[in-house]
Design a protein that fits this description.
This protein is α/β, with parallel strands linked by helices and 432 residues long. Helices cover 38% and strands 16% of the residues. The protein has 16 helices and 17 strands. The strands form five sheets. The chain has a seven-stranded mixed beta sheet with strand order 4-10-9-8-7-5-6, sandwiched between helices. A hairpin with a 2-residue loop joins strand 1 and strand 2. Helix 5 crosses helix 12, helix 6 packs parallel to helix 7 and helix 13 packs parallel to helix 16.
Length: 432
């Protein structure tokens, strides 16, 4: 694919140039302090205190490079794509398709043609359920879904199972919050048509052995969908190495805008997936006797896409891949280990889940305190966490819980912020 020439609009004079230290950063040069300079929102105050953003599993903040890309697009290149013959339409189309190619490279996909743009992980899972699922599931078929999953990887399968009279089969967890691999192996059978698993849990942080689970499912002829929403911001992903049939993620959890996401599908499956929405952009020709559809991936992208979202996603991917991903992962692992250690000093605090393979998601309860009260107390000091069921009620129910507090870390969080969290929680307990 030819790299589009978008220099005429990609750096408007009204927008300050990117920090040279970011552009020139060499591998091994990662520090949280250096990347924090890229995030304007991290320098605001909340309730009179400097912001401590610990709700990254819900959404990540956006670097200046993404914000600038959106400003540049809307300020100098706003146009619809694929159907226009003028200069700006060509520029916008080239940038949009450059985004598709960048995502393919980011995921290790064999071709950009396997990348479908959607609103997010939820829409991606629903797309697979309503296209591949409706065509391939029927009475007597099993869909295996671990108890670990986010609701967006449970409810669509419940809906299509009811419609097709297939059976949704939960895979239990161990006390540590890992998928019970013995139970998983026992539940797989010739009836299994699909396994839906998260690459990292949004409530326990657990990182299952997805590659091994996929290989085992394939031995039974089952397909595997991987929910990568929580994974892609924390460690590199290679869909060919995983051998995933479907892989989905949301841009807003990857430092990109809301409303844009990705579904990767293996070429042989994508070729057989029928459109799930009709309209413009997804057709070759239309008359009242017959409509012929465009080739994949465009036939699964009806209507005007989230063009600015793709531009922002492209900027986010370029920003993240400019960093040393191994150094980032090592930093986050060290930060999480420290957080686990110091949170243990808070009286009455109990962490939920103890898998040794996890991302920096720390879900906890505090004796004598409702999770919503904990979140409100922290918010008064500018510390933002999440409280509730985290759209993972079955996972919490595994521990006999309906609600919990959750602090989730990202590459821009610091050891000092963890100390602030712990100090505030200790003050809360002392005030009780």
């Amino acid at each position: 694919m030819t790299t589009p020439d978008v220099t005429a609009w990609s750096t408007p004079t009204a927008v300050p140039p990117a920090d040279p230290s970011v552009q020139l950063r060499q591998p091994g040069g990662f520090t949280a302090e250096s990347v924090r300079k890229d995030f304007p929102i991290l320098h605001r105050t909340v309730n009179g205190h400097p912001l401590v953003w610990l709700d990254n599993a819900a959404t990540t903040q956006k670097p200046r490079q993404v914000i600038e890309a959106l400003t540049a697009y809307y300020g100098a290149a706003n146009s619809n794509i694929h159907r226009g013959a003028h200069t700006m339409a060509r520029e916008a189309t080239e940038a949009y398709e450059e985004g598709r190619a960048a995502v393919a490279d980011f995921l290790g996909a064999p071709s950009p043609d396997g990348v479908v743009f959607v609103r997010g992980t939820t829409e991606a899972v629903n797309l697979v359920a309503q296209t591949w699922g409706r065509a391939n599931l029927g009475p007597g078929d099993d869909i295996l879904v671990p108890v670990l999953e986010h609701h967006s990887d449970i409810v669509p399968w419940q809906m299509i199972a009811k419609e097709t009279r297939a059976r949704l089969v939960p895979v239990p967890l161990t006390p540590a919050g890992e998928i019970d691999q013995d139970a998983y192996a026992d539940l797989l059978s010739a009836r299994t048509q699909l396994v839906a698993i998260s690459h990292a849990s949004n409530v326990l942080g657990t990182v299952p052995p997805v590659k091994e689970m996929t290989a085992l499912a394939h031995r039974y002829g089952a397909r595997v969908l991987v929910d990568g929403a929580q994974a892609v911001a924390h460690f590199p992903v290679d869909v060919q190495d995983l051998n995933a049939d479907f892989y989905a993620f949301s841009g807003h959890k990857l430092f990109a805008p809301t409303g844009i996401g990705v579904l990767y599908t293996k070429p042989d499956l994508l070729a057989d997936m029928a459109p799930w929405q009709g309209g413009g952009n997804m057709i070759e020709s239309v008359d009242f006797a017959r409509t012929t559809f465009a080739a994949a991936p465009h036939r699964l992208e009806a209507g005007t896409g989230h063009i600015s979202g793709v531009i922002g996603l492209l900027a986010a991917v370029n920003w993240l891949t400019s960093l040393d991903r191994e150094a980032v992962a090592a930093y986050e692992e060290g930060l999480m280990s420290y957080a686990v250690q110091v949170l243990a000093t808070v009286p009455g605090l109990e962490l939920i889940g103890s898998s040794p393979h996890r991302i920096a998601v720390l879900t906890f309860t505090l004796a004598g305190q409702d999770p919503a009260t904990v979140a409100d107390w922290l918010d008064r000091e500018g510390i933002e966490i999440r409280a509730g069921h985290h759209c993972a009620q079955p996972a919490l129910a595994h521990y006999g819980l309906e609600s919990a507090a959750r602090a989730s870390l990202a590459l821009y969080n610091t050891f000092e912020e963890v100390d602030q969290l712990v100090a505030s929680l200790r003050r809360l307990q002392q005030s009780a």
